[in-house]
């Protein structure tokens, strides 16, 4: 039985170990992709591909286990999400998957792959999924990490007290896991620091008093929490700040961080609210409302940049601005990601409004990596300013 037509339990989707030699390469590849979607998804939902170009078969996309006709609770948790979470935690299914992957790797030389490249690719994929189980076990054993951030503010604000934030960060368990949003990444730290030290650079003084600020892929919420403390210091009426993400676990942690920093629940008097947001289906209530959009380190594949672009076009007000920070990694599978963001806004691909205005990148700037900030594979951050022209 499949969950929402996507992920299937290993017990019903894996070719039997005893008949691996007779399994086709396509069958093995399909089984691996099912395991990737089940145990190693990114936080971006595969529902984003509805009506758009589908992700390549090798993309680490989420399982898409929320369907359009599905019941979702007030906390943003659907019945199938609960079923998928239960499947991921099922010890029998996990043990079966581990045994199958181990056997596949051990017998790879005996299997009829089309080429050595195919064999190498399949072994790499199997090993990556297998490693995720160890990461998951380590993650369960580790305790959450409390991190304190302090950002100096612009002297123009007339006070020296820095903006401070305390966040709960879960230990990283791998770049392909759904819990990636539980970690504060380097891009969000760099962007938060810049907002505090140079608010004029981002036009914060010029935002209308009833401004709406929306963060896409907020994760731990560092950028939104920073803005929630910074904006009142600019002598502006507190704008509406909405921190959005897709996965319920990330949103739960985000709400806890809001409570920690503001002493109240995000659904009450806190300056930062939260919302579950699927980039493929922004709610009508947010259409063309955002005076400012922000997003930091949410692009990991060309498809993500395109989905983000279309979502931004739906949310951004005619005179709004979208600040996007993309992490630069010079090695590994995420090399060249900033280029995918630029390609998404190439001529002919940019969304266009009825009045002829086109959503474009109007400025870009390379931000240096700071010592002690971000992961070792990060070499810098590309800041994009995106507006209707």
Blueprint of the fold:
Elements: H1 10-13, H2 25-39, H3 79-89, H4 91-106, H5 116-141, E1 145-151, E2 163-169, H6 186-197, E3 212-215, H7 222-230, E4 240-245, H8 248-262, E5 272-276, E6 290-296, H9 302-315, E7 316-328, H10 337-344, E8 359-368, E9 380-388
Parallel strand pairs: 3-4, 3-6, 4-5, 6-7
Antiparallel strand pairs: 1-2, 7-9, 8-9
Folded structure, characterized:
The structure is a single chain. With 389 residues, the protein is α/β, with parallel strands linked by helices. The chain folds into 2 domains: 1-41 and 79-139, no CATH class; 145-388, Vaccinia Virus protein VP39 (Rossmann fold, 3-Layer(aba) Sandwich). The protein is built from 10 helices and 9 strands. The strands form 2 sheets. Strands 5-4-3-6-7-9-8 form a 7-stranded mixed sheet. The longest helix has 26 residues, at 116-141. The chain starts with 9 loop residues before the first helix and ends with a strand.
CATH homologous superfamily (4th level) name of the largest domain: Vaccinia Virus protein VP39
Structurally, the number of domains stands at 2
Number of helices in the DSSP assignment: 10
Task: Give the termini distance in whole angstroms.
Answer: 49 Å
Helicity range of the residues?
Answer: 25-40%
* Mean pLDDT reading: 81
- Secondary-structure element series: HHHHHEEHEHEHEEHEHEE
Which architecture of the largest domain per CATH? 3-Layer(aba) Sandwich
Q: Major sheet: size, sense and barrel closure? A: 7 strands, mixed
CATH topology of the largest domain: Rossmann fold
Count the beta strands: 9
Give me the Rg, rounded: 22 Å
Please identify the structural class as seen in this structure: alpha/beta
Please state how the strands of the largest beta sheet are arranged side by side. 5-4-3-6-7-9-8
What does the overall shape look like?
Answer: elongated
Class of the largest domain, according to the CATH hierarchy? Answer: Alpha Beta
Strand content: 15-25%
Low-pLDDT segments, ≥5 res: 1-5, 42-78, 137-142, 172-179
InterPro entries: Methyltransf_16 (IPR019410), SAM-dependent_MTases_sf (IPR029063)
GO molecular function: S-adenosylmethionine-dependent methyltransferase activity
Biased composition (Acidic residues): 67-79
Pfam families: Methyltransf_16
